[in-house]
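Q: How would the structure tokens look for this protein?
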Amino acid sequence: MPEIPKYKAYSLSNFRDIPQLAALPESLRFDIEVVGQVLPFKVDNFVLDHLIDWRRVPDDPLFTLTFPRRAMLAPAHHDEIAGLLRAGADADRIRAAANRIRLTLNPHPAGQISHNIPTLEGEPLDGMQHKYRETVLFFPSQGQTCHAYCSFCFRWPQFVGLSELKFASREVDRLIDYLRANPQVNDVLFTGGDPLIMSTRNLAQHIDPLLEADLPNLRRVRIGTKALSYWPYRFLGEDGDALMALFERVAASGRHLALMAHFNHPRELEPEPVHQAIARVRQTGAVIRTQSPLLRHINDDPALWAEMWNRQVDLGCVPYYMFLTRDTGARDFFSVPLVRAWEIFRQAYQRVSGLCRTVRGPSMSANPGKVQILGISEVGGEKVMQLRFIQGRNPDWVHRPFFAAYDENATWLSDLRPAFGEPRFFYQDDLEAYYRENLPASHPDDYE
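A: Here is the predicted structure in token form.
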């Protein structure tokens, strides 16, 4: 095992102490400070020392993945915050301006607050989401941060101090009660933030009670994490030993444990500690499934995706999803048009063998569900985009193909319109009826 270095994090308060930044122009450091007032920023010493190619900064993809960039804010927003900083405005005034800007960035897309919060005995269960029939998301309160932050993250409101925009729960007992009351749920996903920011002792206080409850419907436990990339030492050393023992307890209970690992660029798979961490996890019986959004400036190249999937399979991981950047935060900086996304996916898919073709995509996690772009066709003389649901709020929508009018500029489901002169997509009446019955204050955009 390698020597475990001490974890060190950098944020706005101390980022100018990062040794590698000293060689960069002050204008770039100032832009980090400006954008970091609005969007969350944290990076750790593993990312700095092992992932970023400092010879390529600021255009290095791993630098862009973790550091704020000027273009991540609209010019007017950037200039407003920059003006306040240059004028020496007090922290409260800067925070007020940042919060106002944040609320223009669609902080909770896809109905996360308005439509996904479950109830039990008439009471909302804070820190949980239940969108798809079989799967419940649980947000442990001590896991609502990460070792480092991704600049594209759709859960960025968790990290910027807007308390009304946070998800967190300490109540694993209520989760157990909810699972007992909803036997259709067989899959619990621990998410955040990153649950593996927690010590193993704290994580076990959430997972062990689930196992001890002996719920007949609970068949799978998932943990969403970026730790394999941003801090692989989490799986090594003394607390790593305890974590592997916890994973083994899940397997011994007869449940399937899946680590939903986020890798956004093939370079993240190169460091030796990452290889060691992956090997240790696999030895427990857990399966590592890998996923990433398609990100302009970071991985919008089919060769990179093919390389990433190949390396993941070589290391024993299972390629799972290529997502599209959600319509929130700095999405104008990162988003790729849907047509181009499909071309990148198709070209990458053509370059790999069947063992890599477990991956699905490109997929939008939109309000109605996970919508996959299947391709571009011509039907009856009309150029169209073919789509289908991989998951849906209504399970009957799943795998039903539908068509949108061709639009080479569209970047999200809400940009698309039905093909063939149809007034609506097939699912919209059903979705509206559900919202009228259950959420009478829904906004019309929620139907998309």
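Residues 440-448 have pLDDT under 50 and may be disordered.

Residues 94 and 148 are 23 Å apart (CA to CA).

Upvote if useful.
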